[in-house]
User: What shape does this take?
Amino acid sequence: MKTVITIGRQFGSGGREIGEKLAQAYDIKYYDKELIARAAKESGFCEEILMNHDERPTNSFLYNLVIDTYSFGYNSSSFVDMPMSQKVFLAQFDTIKKIADEGPCVIVGRCADYALEGRDNVINLFIYADEDFRVRKIMEQYGMDENKARDNLVKKDKQRASYYNYYTNRKWGRAESYDLCINSSVLGIDGSVKLIKQFVEDFESKA
Assistant: This one.
């Protein structure tokens, strides 16, 4: 196993669970909230700050400024003046690259597919599901009633889409942004994992 797997996911689709099971199956590292802890440690930011800005867009984002700043590093004057949400994005962006350099792993969300663009050992997945399936899963997982689950589903998806579309040149959830999109409500969690493992096997055999 030498592949890095990135997972974009709709809220309630089981993307996190699928990622965890893939990491267990291949005995490789898994990064979701773990990425925040590591980014905090490496950037010097407080972990709480990273959590507060995690996968949330800023309305004052200047794409070129951020990319220019990234190439100059954290000490540039433009970085100092940058909104915190942009600094958090850069810190995670940097950490994702370092993690991928260390070997195969599973990375959930946070524009990981974009951060690793151009690498030939990366598979980018998107997990989605039917709304009723997602609502039931959110209700079970978070102990919410149906109305609150539906509200959270819409809110979280909008948040993730805004963040992804803001910081990348792609569209969140659009098939052309990924290598494989899976409807987890059709295959179930284990069936989705099985399909992805077959995809990884074929991908690595052609590498």
